[in-house]
Specification:
The structure is a single chain. With about 130 residues, this protein is an alpha+beta fold. It has four helices and five strands, in the order E-H-H-H-E-E-H-E-E. The strands form two sheets. It has a three-stranded antiparallel sheet. A two-stranded antiparallel sheet has the order 2-3. Strand 2 and strand 3 form a beta hairpin. Helix 1 packs across helix 2 (about 40-55). It is globular. The relative contact order is 0.24.
């Protein structure tokens, strides 16, 4: 495989009890948690958390889960939208795609975000040669 092949860079996983997220939504409201009022809020919560883990976000960014929006139905496919403080950090870290998957079983939602390396090498940086 070439140096810049489609290798996996990082994997982030997050598992949550769906009933717990439902209780949080009932207590604080979906708007406060930036979750949809309908559908499966635990799926979106888990996907955002898994994405932050895959990005290996530092604490000041990792707490900004509200800066990640998801487009798509609860079953996928999903599109990640980075905004706020997460957007510039994600641009600096992402060198390919983010693959998302969700498993639901026995009341738990587990999400995985896999960052893959871009198939093309990054552009070479210009360096000044000392004379």
């Amino acid at each position: 495989m070439p140096e810049y092949g489609n290798g996996i860079l990082r994997v982030g996983s997050y598992s949550v009890d769906a009933a717990t997220v439902d209780r949080l939504v009932a207590r604080y409201g979906s708007e406060a948690l930036r979750l949809p009022a309908t559908g499966a809020p635990a799926v979106r919560w888990a996907l955002r958390q898994a994405t932050l883990r895959a990005l290996a976000a530092p604490p000041r960014i990792a707490c900004r889960w509200g800066d990640i929006a998801l487009r798509g139905e609860d079953e996928g496919p999903w599109t990640l939208l980075f905004k706020g403080e997460v957007a510039p950090y994600a641009r600096s870290v992402l060198h390919g795609d983010v693959s998302l998957s969700v498993t639901t079983r026995a009341g738990r939602v587990t999400a995985h975000a896999v960052l893959t390396r871009a198939a093309t090498p990054p552009a070479p940086r210009e360096t000044e040669v000392p004379r």
